[in-house]
Amino acid sequence: MSTAPHAGLAALRTCWHPIAYAADVGDTPHATTLLGEPLVLRPGAVHSTQERYGIVWAALEPPTWPVPDVPELDDASWRTVRTGPFAWACDASRQVENFTDFGHFAFVHAGLLGDPSNSVVAPYEVHVDGPVLRYAYGRPDAPNTSEFPVFAAEERKDATRRTRYALHLPYTIVEHIDWGGADGLVYFFASQPVAADRCVGYCLVARNYNLDQADEVIQAFERTIFAQDQRVVESQRPDRVPFDLAAELHLTFDAVAVAYRRAMRAHGFS
């Protein structure tokens, strides 16, 4: 697997990237790697850092855009659970693009996020808002399991799971999920581009229901989901998303993947 720098490295240096959960950074120096560059978190570091949502963010050059604003993660009436971090042997673009593949839910996550007998992907549109791709998708809801009762209860939801997505370039996704009622779920995912063939994902899950449920229930659910995805994504070649649209076959429901490639090219990340 290649670890050579790519053409978009200069642009990536001007972005905020997650590098650790704040709770995992103690009083001693914390070592990590960002874009192939070794970093040590300590007072008076030479790089720009900030903490938001319990995540430490770093930028190797003055950042172009702020960390996405997600009010629910700052709202005390919502319960936020930290999951991961998830270290994968692939480029951060592959880890992020996994979230854009609506076709895989019914098969890779059968019984948890989808049903193979009901796998048709309905048409949807992607709207480009500067460095943010916005799109919404409704799909048949999968029932809670006895092991992972992490979604709204049956009596408080309809048969469709509605998700509003905001993909913030280069490697952050925010999902707002509802079932037609008052219950809501927010996924906040950001990938740390460690190197061209390594990344670490940080995933926060916030909800305004099941407030007394132990965090371990959602943490165990996400470990299961990410492990299922990891086996698939790490087998993809090349390790990094090929931003040339002719390099891979795209189907009709790959509209987000196509838009992501175009937007990354347009902003100099490829």
Short description:
17% of the residues lie in helices and 32% in strands. It is an alpha+beta fold and 270 residues long.
Mind explaining what this structure looks like?
The chain has helices spanning 9-12, 92-97, 105-108, 215-233, 255-266; strands at residues 17-21, 30-34, 37-41, 48-52, 55-59, 79-88, 126-129, 132-140, 160-168, 172-178, 184-195, 198-207. With 270 residues, the chain is of the alpha+beta class. The strands form three sheets. A seven-stranded antiparallel sheet has the order 6-12-11-10-9-8-7. Strands 1-5-4 form a three-stranded antiparallel sheet, with no helix packed on it.
What is this structure's SSE topology?
Blueprint: H1 9-12, E1 17-21, E2 30-34, E3 37-41, E4 48-52, E5 55-59, E6 79-88, H2 92-97, H3 105-108, E7 126-129, E8 132-140, E9 160-168, E10 172-178, E11 184-195, E12 198-207, H4 215-233, H5 255-266
Antiparallel strand pairs: 1-5, 2-3, 4-5, 6-12, 7-8, 8-9, 9-10, 10-11, 11-12
Order of helices and strands: HEEEEEEHHEEEEEEHH
User: How many strand elements?
Assistant: 12
How far apart are the termini?
18 Å
Global morphology: globular
Total DSSP helices:
5
Query: Helix coverage percent of residues?
Result: 10-25%
Keywords:
270 residues; 12 strands; disordered N terminus
